[in-house]
Amino acid sequence: MFVISHIPLITGAPVFVEYPVPLWLTPGSEDSLTCEAEGNPSPIITWKLNGSAIADSGIEIGNETLTITSANSNNTGVFTCVATNSAGVTEVSVLVELSNVTDITGQDEDTGELLLAWLLLLLLLLLFLVFPSYCKTVVLIA
Predict the structure, then answer these.
(1) Residues 86 and 18 in one domain
(2) Assuming Cys at both sites, which of 14, 57, 81, 140 could form a disulfide with 39, CB separation 3.0 to 4.6 Å?
(3) Could you list the residue range(s) of the whole structural domain that residue 137 is in?
(4) How large is the angle between the packed helices 109-130 and 132-141, nearest 10 degrees?
């Protein structure tokens, strides 16, 4: 009878099977990055922000997920997912930015005036289409 006393385990450096995707967040919003890697032994996932360990209280880190709980300029930038095991280290980076889109209630005065000008232009165009003969007279008088 033949008995195998030792079966060697094949080790492998981490390989990403799910990559984080770039995010554009509005200030105060919440969103998550997910990063998953396989390897033997199973890799440990850690995260960095702009090349440093994450110390921001507005970020929660789970096993393979990083959640930005309230987006601001202190917790956006280049996030790096680091997968580590005894066979190696693999990294992937992704950009998370704040969007400059503002709520319509938070518009400044110039933006509101521009919106009003576009609405008036649209109204005049509509008048030209509905009442073309009247509008020709008005244009000639003006």
Answers:
(1) yes
(2) 14
(3) 104-141
(4) 120
Q: Are residues 125 and 94 in the same domain?
A: no
Region 34-39: mean pLDDT is 96
Q: Which residues contact 29 (CB under 8 A, 6 or more apart)?
A: 70, 71
- Least Cα distance to 43 among 20, 18, 6, 67 occurs for 18
Residue 142's pLDDT band (cuts 50, 70, 90): very low
Cβ proximity of 39 and 89 under 8 Å: no
For residue range 80-123, list pLDDT tens digits in order.
999 999 999 999 999 999 987 655 555 555 566 777 777 777 77
Q: Is the pTM of this model over 0.85?
A: no
Concatenate the DSSP letters of all residues of 98-124 into one string: E-----GGG--HHHHHHHHHHHHHHHH
Residue 1 located in a structural domain: no
Residue 81 to residue 16: CA distance in whole angstroms: 10
What type of residue sits at position 108? D
CB atoms < 10 A from the CB of 79, how many? 24
Q: Indicate if 124 and 70 belong to the same structural domain.
A: no
Q: Where are the beta strands (DSSP E) in 7-69?
A: 12-18, 23-25, 31-34, 36-40, 44-49, 52-53, 59-61, 65-68
